[in-house]
Design goal:
- Helix content is 38%, strand content 15%.
- It is of the alpha/beta class and 353 residues long.
- The protein folds into 2 domains: 5-29 and 271-352, Aspartate Aminotransferase, domain 1 (Alpha-Beta Complex), CATH 3.90.1150.10; 55-269, Type I PLP-dependent aspartate aminotransferase-like (Major domain) (Aspartate Aminotransferase, domain 2, 3-Layer(aba) Sandwich).
- Strand 3 (98-102), helix 5 and strand 4 form a beta-alpha-beta unit.
- Helix 3 packs parallel to helix 9 (254-270).
- The relative contact order is 0.17.
């Protein structure tokens, strides 16, 4: 019997000691990514390395992410958090601009707009987001997949509505990149935390910006990494910023990016389409199993399954070695390439008592 890429990767790269269904909170690190981080730690501890890490790993991670989401690397900025990327976008808006977002959207996606105090923020239910775009809406900010319950946004309809009213779009792909195919070029901005379905160490994040939108973003934290000639800009003010999205780079954690390079290579080897098919099949099995024991999950075809009102069972599952999350009263389980049907059945067995 032929072994699939997912089976090979699962066998060689993952050895979870639990039934791990919590990728929506934090993805498992592949062995090769963990080894890369450990190697850099040891180099830094023993003085074998000149400097804290290798800039080439940042370049490689940027390139790998760009390929994954279908844009050129010139559209990708790197950093350490989604909130800092969204903060750049928030800083670019004029006073009084309207930002439209779903009710209950993840804090990092909406807080940078809310705290400014001079923007008009408007919240509507996710399923009404496209219809709520109106003349005067400057930006629609939303997640492709909701953190609290795994619902997938009506991406095509929202993009079409924004285009019809001249609004820009900011998509958070933190709960989708890695299992749901993404065309980042279809949005003015995308932001992605790398430590979930991309399986990177925490402290890895990516911002994509169209060439047009790059002209409107401020450069808030330029260091040598944001310069066109980085090593020629070590001392004194940066004289010439990078011509592409790299001018929006944050100084990064090398430990995170040494691991991220390996994780993104691994994901490319398997392919997002294959991960989507695998993860959503497991999620469908879990939804069906939940129904058979009297629990109704949020409907859909997401790799993330939420069961309203069942969040209180999270401690019981944890005690049995099944790792999930409780979010907004929901029990939330997330399925990824390292999960199996046995993981699904184990969680159902615990829930069934």
């Amino acid at each position: 019997m032929e072994t699939s890429a997912i089976d090979r990767v699962r066998a060689s790269e993952f050895a979870s000691e639990t039934t791990y269904l919590n990728t929506s909170a934090c993805g498992l690190l592949p062995r090769s990514a963990a080894d890369a981080v450990k190697a850099l730690v040891e180099d830094n501890a023993t003085g074998r390395r000149q400097g804290a890490g290798d800039h080439a790993t940042v370049v490689a991670a940027r390139d790998a992410f760009a390929r994954l989401v279908g844009v050129g690397p010139g559209r990708v900025a790197v950093g350490g958090s989604v909130a800092s990327h969204v903060g750049l976008v928030a800083a670019s808006l004029p006073p009084g601009a309207e930002v439209l977002a779903p009710t209950g959207e993840f804090s990092s996606v909406v807080s940078p707009f809310a705290v400014r105090g001079d923007l008009r923020t408007r919240y509507v239910p996710l399923d009404g987001l496209a219809d709520a775009v109106r003349p005067g809406t400057a930006l629609v900010a939303f997640s492709a997949v909701q953190s609290s319950d795994g619902r997938v946004a009506a991406l095509d309809a929202i993009r079409a509505a924004a285009a019809a009213h001249g609004a820009r779009t900011l998509l958070d792909a933190s709960q989708s990149a890695g299992w749901l195919p993404l065309d980042a070029g279809a949005y003015d901005y995308t932001v992605t935390g790398g430590f979930k379905f991309l399986m990177c160490p925490r402290g890895t994040s990516f911002l994509t910006v169209t060439e047009e939108a790059q002209e409107t973003l401020p450069v808030l934290f330029p260091g040598m990494a944001a310069a066109e000639d980085a090593w020629g800009s070590v001392y004194g003010p940066v004289e010439r910023l990078a011509a592409e999205a790299r001018r929006f780079d944050e100084p990064v954690s090398f430990l995170s990016y040494h691991g991220a390079e390996r994780s993104l290579e691994l994901l490319a080897e398997v392919g997002v389409d294959a991960v989507q098919a695998h993860a959503t099949a497991l999620a469908a099995r879990f939804r069906a199993g939940l129904a058979s024991i009297g629990h109704e999950a949020v409907p859909g075809a997401s790799a993330i399954v939420a069961v309203p009102g069942l969040g209180g069972r999270e401690p019981d599952l944890a005690a049995a070695g099944v790792v999930v999350s409780a979010r907004a009263g929901n029990l939330r389980a997330a399925f990824h390439l390292y999960n199996t049907e046995a993981d699904v059945d184990r969680a159902l067995d615990v829930l069934a008592g």
